[in-house]
Specification:
CATH class of the domain at 32-131: Mainly Alpha
Structural class: mainly alpha
Number of helices: 6
Number of strands: 2
Helix content: 55-70%
Strand content: under 5%
Distance between the termini: 39 Å
CATH topology of the domain at 32-131: Arc Repressor Mutant, subunit A
Largest sheet: 2 strands, antiparallel
CATH architecture of the domain at 32-131: Orthogonal Bundle
């Protein structure tokens, strides 16, 4: 990890605790999503990779036809892209998981940590399944058309 936030005085420790306490009551799916995006940003920066590069490597890993076209345009073999891309992607995935676990260490119950990890995996499967419905201007509703849960007051 490149940097650590360290409180240098008791006042700063109290301020950090106050921020943590305030954020507990304001948690939402949107807040969690933005938090995950920020974690990904930090982890990918450590991997020296942009989000776009990460997406492209995942696209290539899934074996989309663009892989051959991209290799041709770059005058390299598919194998060269795959080997280098696989290594970079594996490293980025390790960093993403490490950053996630650094956040999840704040959760006291190990079952909740596992539930959180599982929830992210389930979302990943749903994301892959919905890939064909994503458009530049949004996402087309899927076959199950579930409504978002009602917000609690």
């Amino acid at each position: 990890m490149r940097s650590h936030v360290v409180a240098t005085s008791e006042v700063e420790v109290q301020e950090l605790d106050d921020v943590a306490d305030a954020s507990d009551s304001e948690a939402s799916i949107g807040d969690a999503t933005v938090g995950l995006a920020r974690l990904a940003e930090l982890a990918l920066a450590e991997a020296r990779m942009s989000l776009t590069q990460y997406r492209l490597l995942h696209y290539l890993r899934r074996g989309r036809t663009i892989q051959s076209d991209l290799a041709f345009q770059l005058a390299v073999t598919k194998h060269a892209i795959t080997r280098k891309g696989e290594h970079a992607l594996d490293r980025a995935d390790e960093l993403l998981e490490r950053y996630l676990m650094l956040v999840l260490q704040e959760v006291e119950d190990d079952a909740d940590v596992e539930l959180s990890r599982r929830g992210i995996e389930v979302f990943g499967r749903a994301k892959r399944a919905s890939y064909g419905r994503v458009r530049p201007d949004g996402i087309v509703p899927g076959p199950k058309r579930r409504r978002p849960p009602e917000r609690r007051a």
